[in-house]
Specification:
alpha/beta; Aspartate Aminotransferase, domain 2; Aspartate Aminotransferase, domain 1; 5-stranded mixed beta sheet
C-alpha cells in the first residue's frame, strides 16, 4: 500500500492528481464510449465495458489495499465469482470450503457443474483434509475465511505451503474481514474475491464485486474475461464504492468494537446456546485469527434454544433490520436457513449447523448499547 498505513491507504492509495479541475472526489465518467483523437490513436479508453476511468480508479484502489498486481470490478460479488470460474476448464476440480455462502454453492452445484468443473467440499480449517483432497485434477482451492455463517477460519499461509509450486490457484474470499483487517495475498493467495456490496461500499446502496490478482499474468487474464463476459461495474457504482472505501477504516473499527461487546453479551444469555465470533478467546480459531489478521471483523452467528425464539427475535427487533446482506452501517439480522442458504438441501444445511435455531448478525456502527437493548427486548 505504498508504505501507507491502512487508514491512509483507504483514502489516498489510488489518488489521481492528473485531473485538471483538481477534483478531490473521483469524477464519474458516465460515458459508454470514448472518441479517438484520430486514426490509430486512443486516449487509453475506448468502451466502458473494456475500461472506464472511474472504474479504473476503484480497481487501482482495491488492488493497492490488497497488495495485488491488479483488480477487476464487477456488477456484483456473484458476477465476480462467475467470471472467476471461467478460468477453469471442463474436467478441472476445485476444492472449496464446505461452509460457504449459499449463492456460491448454488453457482458451483449448478452452473459450474454444468460446465464440467466439479467442486469438492471439505472443512478447509483442517490442513490434512486439504492434503487428502488434492488430486491431479485439482486446479483451485477456494477458501472463505471466516466462513459464512459458521465463522470457521482457514490458515492461508499453510494452505499455500501445501500447494507449493504446483499450478493450483489459492483463492480467498475476504469479504468479511476486508483488506483493512486481512491481506491474503501477503500469505500466498493468488486471487482474492470480494462482494464489495458489503463492507467496501458499506452503505447498503449498491451491488459490486472484485477479483484481485497477485500476479500481472493472472490480472491480465481476469481483465480479458471481464471484458469478454461483460459483467462490469458501472461508472456511478464505481464512484459509490470508492466513496465508501474512504471510511472503511473507521467503520470497521467501530463495527468490530460493537461486535466484541455484543458477542460477550450474547454468551451470557440463557436463550443463546452458542455464539460464533472469531474475536472471542474461546473460539477454536482465535489464535490463528490473531496471527494472520489485524482484526476480527463484525460478523456474529448465534444459536438460540428453539426455532420459536429465533423467529421471535426476527419479528420483535425494531432497531436491527431483518434483511439479506451484511457489512453496512446498519445492523442487520439474517436467518440463514431461509435466506442466504435457502437453496442448499435441508440435510446438507443441517449437517453444516445451519438449522432453524441459527441467526446471523452483521453488526453496524450504531451505539452498541442500543443494539444490545434491541436484542434484549426481542428475547423477552
Amino acid at each position: 500500500m505504498n508504505n501507507m498505513n491502512p487508514e491512509t491507504a483507504c483514502i489516498h492509495a489510488a489518488r489521481d492528481n492528473s485531473h485538471s479541475t483538481g477534483a478531490v472526489a473521483v469524477p464519474v465518467y458516465q460515458s459508454a464510449t470514448f472518441a479517438h483523437p484520430g486514426f490509430g490513436q486512443s486516449t487509453g479508453y475506448d468502451y466502458t465495458r473494456t475500461q472506464n476511468p472511474t472504474r479504473e480508479h476503484v480497481e487501482k484502489l482495491v488492488a493497492a489495499l490488497e497488495g495485488g498486481a491488479g483488480a477487476a470490478a464487477f456488477a456484483s460479488g456473484m458476477a465476480a465469482l462467475s467470471t472467476l470460474m471461467e478460468m477453469f476448464a471442463p474436467g478441472d476440480e476445485i476444492i472449496a470450503t464446505d461452509d460457504l455462502y449459499g449463492g456460491s454453492i448454488r453457482l458451483f452445484n449448478n452452473i459450474s457443474k454444468k460446465n464440467g468443473v466439479s467442486v469438492k467440499y471439505i472443512n478447509t480449517s483442517y490442513l490434512q483434509a486439504i492434503e487428502n483432497a488434492i488430486t491431479e485434477r485439482t486446479k483451485g482451492i477456494f477458501v472463505e475465511t471466516p466462513t459464512n455463517p459458521m465463522m470457521k477460519v482457514a490458515d492461508v499461509a499453510r494452505i499455500k505451503k501445501i500447494i507449493g509450486n504446483s499450478d493450483i490457484l489459492l483463492i480467498v474470499d475476504n469479504t468479511f474481514l476486508t483488506p483493512y483487517f486481512f491481506n491474503p495475498i501477503e500469505l500466498g493467495a493468488d486471487i482474492v474475491i470480494h462482494s464489495a456490496t458489503k463492507y467496501l461500499a458499506g452503505h447498503n446502496d449498491t451491488l459490486a464485486g472484485f477479483l484481485v490478482a497477485k500476479s500481472p499474468k493472472i490480472a491480465e487474464k481476469i481483465h480479458y474475461l471481464k471484458n469478454t463476459i461483460g459483467g462490469v461495474l458501472s461508472p456511478f457504482d464505481s464512484f459509490l464504492v470508492a466513496r465508501g472505501i474512504k471510511t472503511l477504516a473507521v467503520r470497521m473499527e467501530k463495527a468490530q468494537e460493537n461486535a466484541i461487546a455484543i458477542a460477550e453479551w450474547l454468551k451470557k444469555q440463557p436463550k443463546v446456546t452458542a455464539t460464533y465470533y472469531i474475536g472471542l478467546p474461546n473460539h477454536l480459531d482465535y489464535e490463528l485469527s490473531k496471527r494472520q489478521a489485524r482484526g476480527f471483523g463484525a460478523m456474529i452467528s448465534f444459536r438460540v434454544d428453539t426455532a420459536q425464539t429465533a423467529q421471535d427475535i426476527l419479528n420483535k427487533t425494531s432497531l436491527i433490520l431483518y434483511a439479506e446482506s451484511l457489512g453496512g452501517v446498519e445492523t442487520l439480522i439474517t436467518y440463514p436457513a431461509t435466506q442466504t442458504h435457502a437453496d442448499v438441501p435441508e440435510a446438507e444445511r443441517i449437517a453444516r449447523g445451519i438449522d432453524d435455531k441459527l441467526l446471523r448478525l452483521s453488526v453496524g456502527i450504531e451505539a452498541a448499547e442500543d443494539i444490545i437493548n434491541d436484542l434484549k427486548n426481542a428475547m423477552k
